[in-house]
Amino acid sequence: MPDLSLQHLNFSPEFQLLINCSWVAPAELVRFQQDRIDFQLSRIGDWKRFLSLVDRHRVSVLVDRALAQRRARLPGHVRDRLRAQSFRARSAALIQAKEWSRLADRFSGAGVDLMARANQAAFANLLAGDFSGTGRVLKRLIAPSSGD
What domain range includes position 37? Predict the structure, then answer.
């Protein structure tokens, strides 16, 4: 297995925690990810910096989910802010999904086919209720007609 510890990189503990919370581990790496999160939580010195990184990289849903699964003990203001950011991101994703669905219905009603593009798996997950990828950009494009 490759070295995924990030120790050889000169990242701050705050950024390393962000990295470890920002991916969905395959089954064989779940324990590794959990151990890394626990380790990084013990090293955080600047929660304001951590929250700033979460904002900048727009991964609040993933981070909130990862830390909630670990039942991590966070300062109250950190937990509250992560929950609020995650709620806003999930709400925005639902609003976008509703609008995309409305537009798809209108185009379909007019006989114009649409195709999901640039992250079909994330779009399918979103429609299925999995909002872990809300930071991804999902695009819908009009399918080219024959002869164009």
Answer: 13-142
Contact 62, 21 (CB under 8 A): yes
**Banded model confidence at residue 18, pLDDT cuts 50, 70, 90:** very high
Task: Flag whether 111 is in a domain.
Answer: yes
Is position 1 within any domain? no
**Cα–Cα distance measured from residue 87 to residue 106, given in angstroms and rounded to the nearest whole number:** 29
Name the domain count of the chain: 1
Q: Is residue 5 part of a domain?
A: no
Verdict on whether the full-model pTM lies above 0.85: no
